[in-house]
Amino acid sequence: MTQAQLIAHYFSDSDNNIDMEIQPSIDNETIERKKQNRRKWIPLCTYSDKNDVIKKINDDGIWSKTHTNITNEGKRTYYRCNQVKLHGKPCPASIHVLYHSENECVTISNMQIIQNENQAKTYTRNIRKKSLHVPKKQQLSSYLISLRKKYYGASTISLDELDAWCQRNSLIPDDDDKSWVLKYQIEYEDEINKDDDNKNKFRFFVTARRLLFNARSPCFIIGTTDMITQFHPFGFTVCSNEKQNEFEFIFSCLRDDLLNLNLQMNEQELILITDDAEVISNAFLKIILKKWKNEDKFLRYFSNEWLNAKNGWFEGLATHAPSTNYALEATNRVIKDEDTLRERLVLSRFTVVLYSIVNKWSKERNPTLINSKKFKHQPLITHYQYGLMHTTGLSLTKMLYRFFMGTQHCIIYLLVKKLESQIKKSNDMKIAGLIHLARTSLFTSIYGA
Fold it and tell me: According to the model, what pLDDT value does residue 23 have?
């Protein structure tokens, strides 16, 4: 019977890890980062007339406007206490005014600072408020530990247990939204590998069947972007390191294992968008060019003409492809804020959270739901409409505003009106022809061909 080997704590090879809770100082000592106090807004009162709110703020005489944010709920205007200097030690008193978007009401809220405390003290104080029996801190802490173990499992996991977990979850489910392990690799110290160290390695890719339906699209960042640059993830990969072997594992999952679902990726239109890391691009090239390794002449031609000469970063390099990976970073922020709650989880418990994340991604893209995140195969503005915009001089901001506030018919209608106003000033037959084309496009978009 093999001896269980515990997985060491994971540390990234990247130098840009900004989420660490401790920072090394000059003297090689560790300084704990002080946690900031949380803020909570408490509604004070609601007015039906905004003039009453402005009058109240002016009568108080202690508030100064700082900034304004536009949200889905309405416009929020923030005020600070002006009894202290602006650049001195700030006063904790603050209010904000919410102008509701759905009605004419205006709400004033006051800021309450919540001091950071451990969970045991917080629960004890809440139990005391309800006049219940207060257990000892050690009893409450032990209960929380047992409850966390019940829902998330043990806090430590061995490589053998991780291997068994991957095997149990490797079967392809019938449900399109159920999470499963697409592929995994586990290497022990005594196994031969190509790395420069002899430590244990593990890699596994968790996905759902529905998420892989978009894997045939041309642009992916462990996910893909549609024609309006919305990000759609393929799945979630967990690796013990960030070297070339790990990224080769990710790309091989997408290329080889998609055949099990009768899906095939269009390798002729692939576009790789990543940060400035050579290990990612080298792994991508190695996997994509693997099937051409016996064709040396073609391989040299393809590498020189299509890989070395077709790499860069500028607008227009790839049509309908984003210039940055901001959409991916936004998805990463949602994971930290909503799923892990900014907590550094151990691997054994993160696997439980991981399954719920992938399952949520898949259900959000279920086409039977009303507000599902659909994959857009057509851009919002076509090349024909973009050309008409430049011909007529219609502002792009106005076009986009009209498009999002209404339908595509509004764009064509605005173009027709703009052209008609121009042809009255000059009898240009070219503009007359554009009016005819725009009217035909408007009629076809409304009533069909």
Answer: 44
Please give the structure tokens belonging to residue 34.
């002080």
* pTM, to two decimals: 0.49
pLDDT one-digit tens code per residue, 393-427: 545 444 444 443 444 445 555 555 555 555 555 55
In the prediction, which pLDDT does 7 show?
43
- Residue 352: closest CA among 341, 339, 342: 339
Determine the average pLDDT of the residues in 258-270: 67
SS3 219: strand
Q: Look up residue 16 and give its two tokens.
A: 């840009």
The superfamily (CATH) of domain 38-114 is WRKY domain (2.20.25.80)
